[in-house]
Structure formats: C-alpha cells, structure tokens
Design a protein that fits this description.
The chain is α/β, with parallel strands linked by helices. Helix content is 48%, strand content 16%.
C-alpha cells in the first residue's frame, strides 16, 4: 500500500503539474482556503442548530457568507498563510492561524454591530464555532500533509530510510529529533533511550521514550534499526561500550554528537553527528591543564619545535600557538607536511610570528646556525624515526637520526642558552627489544646528562601509542575496512597503551611546565588495550560482524615488537607528581662526559656502517636491551635469549 502511494505521489500527473506550475500555487491556495472558510461557516450553523437550520437563519447565513470569506481571506493573506509550505508546518504556523482567525472574527463582530438590521441577529456561538472549525480545518490540512510527507511517503521506500534510536537525555535529543522529522527524510527516529526510567512510556514528537538503556537491544531488534546515535557527549565510556556490545549482533552503525563545547548551547544538527571513533570508547582518564602556568611559560617566548610536520609536532604547534608565543619556529625536513602545518597556522593565527624552516637535526652546523639566529627560549624535540619494524632493518639510520640528531639539537640549545629542552620519548624505550626503543632510551639518558649545562633544563616525556598518528594501527585498520578486509593483527594477545594526539600533547606541555630539569615524566594513559579488541570494535562500529562480514587475520609479531609495553625500566622507580596523570621516573644520575664519550663511539660505528658493532654497543650501553640476532651480513634474524 505504501509503495503504491509513493508511486502515485511520484508519478501522478496532478502532482507533476503542481510542481511544474509553482507560480500558480498562490491562487490555488487562496481558492482552497476559501472553500475551507465556507465549510467552516456552514458547519458552525449546522452544529449550532443540530442540523435543523431555521429558514431565517439560513438566509442570514447566505447573506453574511461573502463578508466572512472576505474577512478571513484578507487576514490569512495578511499573515502570509497562503504561501507556507504545508509539509513543514510548525507551531509558528498554528499561532498565525489562531491570530488570523481571531482578528477576522473581531472584524465580523464589529460589522454585525454596524449592520445588524441588514444581516439579522447572529448568535455569538456561531462565531465561536466558526473560529474553532477554521482553525481545525486549516491547521488539520497542514498537519495531515506533513504527516503524509514524514510517515507515509518517506517510509514507503524503506531502502532509503535509516531507522535510528537516539540515546541521551530528552533535552539534548529534542533538536535532533525535530530536524529528523521536519527536514531530513533519510532518518526515521523510532525510539529515544534515556537513563531516567520514570520517562518510560512517554513520547517526544510522537517518538516513544525508553526508560533505561537495558531495552535498547530489544528495540533495535524490534524496529530493525540501522543506526544508534548517542546524543550524549559526556556519556561514560563503560556505558557506551556496554550498549555497543549488546547491540553488535544487529549490525547497526553507531554515531555520536560532538562534545557540548563543540556545538553552541548543545543545539545539535544532523551535520554535527559523526561516527563513533575508537577514541570515544578507550578507557582513558580525563585530561586537565594548568593553563595559567602554561601561559606564563609560553607567552612572549620564542618556541622551536622539531618534527613540526609530524603527528605530535603539528599538534604541539597548534596548542602552543594558542598561548601567544613571541615567535614559533617550525623545523621539519619533510617539506610537504611543513607546508600543511604552516598554511593552517597562518590561517588560524594570522598575527603569530611564524618561521617555517626546512631543516634536519642531522645537520649539526645547520641547527647551531638556526638556534643562534632565532635564540629559542623553549625547544620541543619531536623529530625522530618511530616505526619499529623499519628501524630493525635500518639500525644505522636509527642511531644517526634519533641519537646523533638529538645530540646535535641538544648542543645547539645549550649554545643558544635555551631555557628548556623537552624531548618526546616513547614507552618502547622501557626494557627495549627494538632498535627504535633502545635508540630512544639512549636519548633519554643523554638528555638527562645534559641537564643544567649552560643553565638549560632538559626534560623528557614518555608515552605510548597515539590514536590517528601517521602509520599507526587505527588508520591502517580503517583503510583495510574500506577495502573489505581482512584486518591484520600481529598477535591475538598483543596490547598497547593509547591516547589521542591532543591529549598526549596537553600532558607534554603540562610536564614541560612542571619540570625542574633532569626529569623523565611518564604520562598516565589508562589501561592497556588489546589490538584484537580494537579491530573487533572498529568492525562493529561499521555495522558489521567480526570474522563474519570482515575477517581478522593474525600475521605474527614483527621484528622488535613486544606483546606488552611497559612504562618504567627495571632501574627506575615511579614517583607521583603534582599532576595526577603524570608520574616521574626516578633513575640513576647521568654524567655528561660519560655519555658524550659513548655517543662519540656510536658516531664512529655509524661512520663505519658496522651494524653488528652498533647492536653490540647498544647492548653494552643499555644492559636490559634484548636485541634480535644478526646473520653474517648484519641482518636481524629474531629474538635471542643470550648475550651477543
């Protein structure tokens, strides 16, 4: 029946003619309203006299009908009610109908007083009944058209309509419900779920309210729901995970509105709704920043950032720019990413003194020249080779860039008398099993040994994986998902610490503000998460079933990878700090002369291109480093359990 009605609506010659002759819509609308006015006036006499209209009143009705049509027609025209689109009728239209009706009745009463001897005495109840019928007929026709548009015609083609359940408090869901029902026929809200069980059985815009989240799976199955939208920006992650887990068998997509701060006054629109991302579901503590201290640290200072085009470096640029530095010096050797962040910053911060410089930390004279020229007060060192498997096959490059490049930069900062030097490290530097990890551990120790040389404070921040960074697992999963799978996971039990890039950078800035020099700060990233579970959740969020619609394939651990990451080395003792999400790793004191000598040795080995000698030197310097074995050509073979 619905499909037939849809075809009639789409293919009807009358409808096509109406659509083609929109300029003639006004006369048709006026004529239709005049018919309704006449019916209302005749109906008022019929009701007043219970169907038996006396002949005298019948004649009075006919005499006064033209005046009624003229009065009501004029006031409806005055309130622009002939031009309104009935499919989008709202309370404002109903208000205008009431206003126009009341004004027309007042005009008719005034005319009756003046012309009573010509028209006869009309009972006042006629005017009351006429007003009620006019409002009922004109308003009812409008709401009938809107109902047909929303519930009949739009639903007749079920393949184009997405049935959705909204989850959240009624006051947050109301704007979205209204827009779905009046402006977007692609969505049909079938239920609203909120935690207040006392609202069970109530309705908003004729949409039933579910009290409590426990009935969401039942409703999702009953209504054959396509999407579940969380209109609940501050929803606890445990609640989101529980609902998603319960509903995953129905193959629905999950979406969410942005945080309250992102949308003015919480008035969400469909354009603001986005897919739920994995970061919305990961167990991470909330972040807060001491903006007052950060402002005093950065405002009016010259700040240099290496690796400024990278994931962490570019976010450092964005957040530091907000605090009004005197100058922001961007150092990056990849010119494309440097252009991207420079363009963004110049657009967002047009008054900022921005220096975008192509340069490599491997160029020691170049770094000294840049630092002598710009005299940075604060240095954030985010440039590094970070991909573990790649560095396993290129240990010389890892040492050249990560270790010797860090030394070049540290010496340039000391010479320029920078006040603070903040190095970005990684949890892979803890009890390292990879070349990348051990290179960063050496950097940590060297930077600590440099502390207070020429009054420069050296600070290290250590954290785990960041969601969405270039080459990380989440973008890879998303790419594989769009290609239909499979999603590749190295091991069923492998797990990692995760946080978002903005969260990590916020804590880096907070640690930079807190550091007294020689500190290694470890960021609290919540509980570690299994990569397999991330893959499964990503498939579920796409409305598919893991290992049914999209396969998960285990490929084996890659060179240098661990099953579990750690946050503190065996020789480090965790200590709390003034910030609840930042701990300090207390370790042995390092001397600059010793580490300068060790890095000289590494530099000589790199010049000789001696891979076995380099790995042996790593093992000698970092005793808890467990390297991979080497063949006679210096190629890494696999984990060894004995010393080289």
């Amino acid at each position: 029946m619905l499909k037939k009605l849809s075809k009639v609506w789409d293919n009807s010659r009358f409808i096509k003619r109406v659509k083609a002759r929109l300029p003639y819509r006004l006369p048709f609308s006026i004529l239709f309203h005049l018919v309704l006015f006449a019916l209302a006036y005749l109906g008022s006499f019929y009701l007043r006299f219970e169907g038996l209209i006396p002949n005298s009143y019948y004649q009075t009705m006919l005499k006064t009908l033209p005046a009624v049509l003229l009065s009501q027609g004029f006031f409806f025209y005055y309130h622009d009610l002939y031009r309104s689109m009935w499919g989008y009728v709202c309370f404002a239209d109903l208000t205008n109908i009431l206003r126009a009706t009341m004004m027309s009745l007042m005009a008719l009463l005034f005319l009756e007083i003046l012309l009573a001897r010509f028209t006869g005495n009309i009972p006042w109840s006629i005017y009351v009944l006429d007003g009620l019928l006019v409002v009922t007929l004109t308003g009812g026709c409008r709401f009938l058209v809107r109902h047909l548009r929303e519930r009949v015609i739009a639903l007749s083609d079920s393949t184009n309509v997405r049935r959705v359940i909204l989850v959240g408090p009624p006051e947050a869901a109301e704007p979205l419900l209204r827009e779905m029902l009046t402006h977007d026929m692609d969505y049909l809200p079938v239920a609203l779920a909120c935690l207040d069980e006392s609202l069970q059985g109530t309705r908003i815009y004729d949409v039933p309210v579910i009290g409590g989240a426990s009935r969401i799976p039942e409703m999702a199955e009953h209504y054959r729901v396509n999407e579940i939208i969380f209109v609940w920006p501050d929803a606890p992650q445990d609640e989101l995970n529980e609902i998603i887990e319960e509903c995953k068998r129905f193959q629905v997509r999950f979406k969410i509105v942005p945080p309250l701060s992102a949308v003015l006054n919480g008035h969400y629109r469909l354009a603001d709704v986005r897919d739920i991302e994995l970061e919305d579901l990961l167990p991470r503590p909330p972040i807060y920043m001491d903006k007052e201290n950060l402002n005093s640290l950065i405002e009016g200072q010259v700040v240099a950032i290496t690796g400024a085009g990278g994931s962490i470096g570019s976010e450092l640029c964005r957040q530091i720019a907000k605090f009004g530095p005197k100058s922001l010096v961007l150092i990056e050797r990849a010119e494309n990413t440097l252009v991207d962040i420079e363009t963004e910053l110049r657009r967002r911060f047009p008054d900022l003194d921005l220096q975008a410089l192509v340069g490599s930390i491997n160029n020691a004279p170049g770094m000294r020249f840049l630092f002598e020229r710009y005299q940075p007060n604060l240095v954030f060192h985010a440039a590094a080779h970070k991909h573990v498997p790649l560095m396993e096959s290129s240990p010389l490059e890892a040492a050249y860039n990560n270790i010797l490049g860090t030394r070049n930069l540290a010496k340039a900062a000391i010479t320029a008398k920078a006040e603070r030097f903040v190095m970005i490290s990684t949890d892979k530097a803890v009890n390292p099993t990879s070349v990348m990890g051990v290179s960063k551990r050496i950097c940590e120790k060297y930077v600590k040994a440099c502390n207070n040389l020429n009054h420069t404070k050296f600070i290290t921040t250590r954290f785990g994986n960041v969601l969405g960074s270039a080459g990380s697992v989440i973008p890879l999963f998303k790419q594989q998902l769009t290609q239909g799978g499979p999603l590749t996971v190295t091991h069923p039990d492998i797990e990692r610490f995760f946080m978002t890039i903005p969260e990590a950078v916020q804590l880096v800035l907070q640690a930079a503000c807190m550091g007294q020099g020689g500190d290694i700060f470890v960021l609290n990233m919540g509980r570690p998460v299994r990569i397999r579970e991330l893959a499964e959740k990503l498939i579920v969020l796409a409305g598919k079933t893991p290992n049914k619609d999209i396969a998960i394939v285990y490929t084996g651990l890659r060179p240098g990878e661990k099953l579990f990451e750690e946050l503190f080395n065996v020789d480090e003792e965790p200590q709390p700090t003034e910030h609840p999400l930042i701990n300090s790793a207390m370790g042995s004191k390092e001397t600059w002369e010793t580490w300068e000598s060790l890095l000289d040795e590494i530099e000589n080995i790199v010049k000789k291109q001696d891979v076995p000698g380099l790995v042996a030197k790593f093992k000698q310097i970092i005793s808890n480093y467990v390297p991979y074995a080497l063949d006679d050509k210096g190629k890494l073979l696999g984990l060894v359990t004995k010393k080289l």
